[in-house]
């Protein structure tokens, strides 16, 4: 099964650029989109012609902001956020078999101390929630824009960004805690020492052409799924957003 995550930074803009055509020939079974910036009645009709049978979304109350959408070729039970107040449309939770699959647009902490505090509270509640689910016998997959690069290998200029939200010690320590709790960063599990592997680039300073980026988009899986993981990859050739898609191949 091929699962993809992509922060599209505006669903309608990507559709207008024909930015989803690659999906038709890539064998995708599931794609989780973040930052769709659209409500139900604003979803372009082209989205419903991509071959996905099960499409759900969670839009922000604020217009033109945040929001997540999931599209799948298999059935699942879907819910919005169960662990945090979610007026910003950040979470979709899907259950099928003994799997709980999350599509999440994690908060950005760069807009000030209040937003960093909000981000860390969201982080903590989410980790507590998935640990409880996993302890109950369910296997976890979560994907999305986590808005934090974990290690120095995960961004081009770590020293210059050591005091920037997205690479603060407190944010990086949360990812340490995720891993200590038994969840696996699939890309690093498959590509342990791969350098210059990024999923987001600033629109400024020609950053993408120079590959001055950050790896802030992830697939994590619970350790019970480790032997089912076949590949993890970054599709940095796919354009249309300031992020590129990331994905995994896994036997489910």
Topology:
Elements lengths: L1 E6 L3 H6 L13 E5 L19 E5 L9 E5 L4 E3 L11 E6 L2 E7 L7 H23 L3 E7 L23 H12 L2 E3 H5 L9 E2 L5 H4 L2 E2 L2 E6 L6 E6 L11 E5 L2
Q: Could you explain how this protein is built, in words?
A:
This protein has helices at residues 11-16, 113-135, 169-180, 186-190, 207-210; strands at residues 2-7, 30-34, 54-58, 68-72, 77-79, 91-96, 99-105, 139-145, 183-185, 200-201, 213-214, 217-222, 229-234, 246-250. The chain is of the alpha+beta class and 252 residues long. It has one domain: Deoxyribonuclease I, Chain A (4-Layer Sandwich). Strands 3-4-2-1-14-13 form a six-stranded mixed sheet. Strands 5-6-7-8-12-9 form a six-stranded mixed sheet. Helix 2 packs parallel to helix 3 (169-180). The longest helix is centred in the middle third of the chain and has 23 residues, at 113-135. InterPro entries: AP_endonuc_1 (IPR004808), Endo/exonu/phosph_ase_sf (IPR036691), Endo/exonuclease/phosphatase (IPR005135).
Key features of this structure:
252 residues, alpha+beta, Deoxyribonuclease I, Chain A, six-stranded mixed β-sheet, 5 helices, 20% helix, EC 3.1.11.2, metal-binding, manganese, phosphoric diester hydrolase activity
